[in-house]
Amino acid sequence: YMAMVAAINRAIDEGKKMYDPRFYSKLTIDDIVHIFRSDTVSTMPLFEERIHVLKEVGDKLIEKYDGTFVSVLRKADGSAMKLIDLVTNEFPCFQDITFYEGQRVALFKRVQILAADLWMLYRGEGLGAFTDIDSLTMFADYRVPQAMAYFGVLKYSDNLMQKLRNETLFQSGDREEVEIRGCSIHAAELIVNETCKILDSWNQPSGGLNSVKVDYFLWDFRLMNATELDVVPYHRVRCIYY
């Protein structure tokens, strides 16, 4: 993620309007390969899928929202949940939906990050003044479950642990992949509830603790303690919704 941000900032410094849908919706695969060129032997995956996403989002913003995401935010009218509904309905690439035992399951990782990051960026004011931010879940990815497993919040079966250690590449929607992500969402809710109970018993305020803050803490903890947490394997999957 940080490498992607660095590449985008580099492109902006080079005069490319990465913030303008009229620009990024017309990028070619060659453009993307150049913009996200690496300083190492590693390369960014899913170039063609990213081209599709940029065009889909850019075209919709131009067609319906005056070429700016600010218009989408204003339509959300201070509601993170309304923003999520708008984005997932208008931009199919944000529809992080799968099926589990015949039931439709919406995990909505990226769109919830979108709402939460805007809330943090604007410090809960202006365009980020979401009155229902506590309604968001954690952002079900692969690094936060790794941190949860490190702390013993999640425990994997021997069979699943072996698959993780073998670096099995799961397909998006695989039963085990959905279970890891779903259980991490439930675990974050339990962490919030139990922490608030403990703070209340100490006559201490919760400080507005919610699943968003739990997610940010665990994600940052993993980032700052990467070597230590590498003793716990994480699940691997290629999915544009991640």
Automatic annotation (TrEMBL):
GO MF annotation list: hydrolase activity
InterPro entries per record: Q_salvage
EC numbers on record: 3.2.2.-
A Gene Ontology biological process term: tRNA modification
Pfam family, one: Q_salvage
Catalytic activity: queuosine 5'-phosphate + H2O = queuine + D-ribose 5-phosphate
Record key words, sorted: Hydrolase
Function in brief: Catalyzes the hydrolysis of queuosine 5'-phosphate, releasing the nucleobase queuine (q). Is required for salvage of queuine from exogenous queuosine (Q) that is imported and then converted to queuosine 5'-phosphate intracellularly.
Family: Belongs to the QNG1 protein family.
Protein name from the UniProt record: Queuosine 5'-phosphate N-glycosylase/hydrolase
